[in-house]
Amino acid sequence: MKKKLVNQSLYRYKRYFVFVLFTVVALAIPFANIDGDHLVLLNFDKFQFHLFFTKFDMQELYLFPFLIMLLFVGLFFMTALGGRVWCGWLCPHTIFRIIYRDLIQTKLLKIRKKISNKQQEPSGQYLKRFTAVSIWTLLSLLASINFMWYFVPPHDFFVYMANPSQHLLMVGIIASLTIFLVYDIVKLQENYCIYVCPYARIQSIMYDDETVQTVYDKQRGGEIYKDGKKIYKNKKELLTTTPSADCVLCDACVAVCPTHIDIKKGMQLECINCLECADACTKVQGALGRESLITWTNEYAIKEKRKPHYFRARILVYIAVLAGLLSLLLYMGSTKEYMLLNINRTTQLYKIKENNIVENTYTMLFQNTDNVEHRYYFKVLNQENIVIKRPTEPFMIKAGKKIKKIVILKTDNILVKDASKDTAIPIKIEAYAKDDKEKIRVIRDTTFVFPRYDKLK
């Protein structure tokens, strides 16, 4: 009697959904902006960093290390939880290989016979293969331009491309990246994952016993390898020693593997957790009325016939660190200063004018980091006897611009009666936008140097 087909969902379609979602998001993010403030943008052209629709200038890049830490800890968390899930489900290289090999070569141009056989490279068919490379070159150019949009926003990019000869560095980066993507996807292929990618070198130190990986169930399927060598050539030989073994030694899992490994040998460095082998086994075992021998779990869970322990101490620590970093990043982002002020004293400590008027001169650099122009002025907060001599009127600064002002503070009062030395008096400068003081105001510390008492007349 024919066995009933076991209904099991394929990981492939879930991965395709993730690929499409990831691609759409990657293409859309550079266009996401509110009044010129982008969702994510590291603008080398204007020396700005945009995050969550807030713009930060280079002086405010204290946020960037937190973002880098967030990305690295997120990758560690993802690896400890799901192995090389990034490689198989989110890595652009994997997505590009799927587009080139499975979509263009197999589905579109029929250069390869079927998706389920990735071991045999196509031969002949030179016109079709040239066409596949040409299509991929155009897609690589689009991917390179999309990458550039994270550093040069689209509205500036298209303006620059109207005169490419004036922006040769940008054109060179796009051309170089396009050439690399063509070489990587067409020639280097999965060797990039095995030999080049640094993530593959360090992933094993992030694993623990409960890390979820692509695992072959030796208890059900039978042990096919011993000391790295294949013991049985066919199912008949396997059944002579292990009559209960469910593996039929069809090697469908081997034929479909993009990195050319046999998952029945056990966990290997080359495995990228794409679960193509699990899908292949699902079809074979499903036709026999059985569950797949390959799934996303770990060996301890298989031996103990349970689900993996996802929420363990290590994972909870990662979650806590990620939550802390994200909260800190959001908080620091929300406290953005819409005005920057640097105060430097001149080499001359002070001047003594008639009637014992003491002057101190400063160079102040004001920057408007808001999206609209404002009128600015400032005052001394904690010393009412120190007043502004210059400038006498508020001044205008356009959006995103800087202006340098020579500032003179003066006093006609005797602030210190010390005949032994000059005295540096701490003062606070409050600078603000006259038209929006509640939002735009900063306070900086500096000093006012008062001369020795015997220098006064």
Number of discrete helical segments: 15
Q: How much beta, percentage-wise?
A: 15-25%
Kindly state the number of beta strands: 18
Helix content: 25-40%
Shape annotation: elongated
Indicate the radius of gyration in whole angstroms: 33 Å
| Main pleated sheet | 5 strands, antiparallel
Low-confidence stretches at least 5 residues in length (pLDDT < 50)? 1-5
Gap from first CA to last CA: 118 Å
Number of domains: 3
Give an overview in words.
By secondary structure, this protein is an alpha+beta fold. The chain has 3 domains: 196 residues, no CATH class; 101 residues, no CATH class; 117 residues, Immunoglobulin-like, CATH 2.60.40. The chain is built from 15 helices and 18 strands. The longest helix has 23 residues. It starts with 10 loop residues before the first helix and ends in a 7-residue tail after the last strand.
List the helices and strands and how they pair.
Layout: H1 11-28, E1 33-34, E2 37-38, E3 40-43, E4 48-51, E5 54-57, H2 63-82, H3 85-89, H4 92-108, H5 126-148, H6 154-161, H7 168-188, H8 191-196, H9 198-202, E6 213-216, H10 218-221, E7 225-226, E8 229-230, H11 235-241, H12 252-255, H13 276-287, E9 294-297, H14 299-303, H15 313-334, E10 339-345, E11 351-353, E12 357-368, E13 374-380, E14 387-390, E15 395-397, E16 402-411, E17 423-433, E18 441-450
Helix pairs in contact: 2-15, 5-7
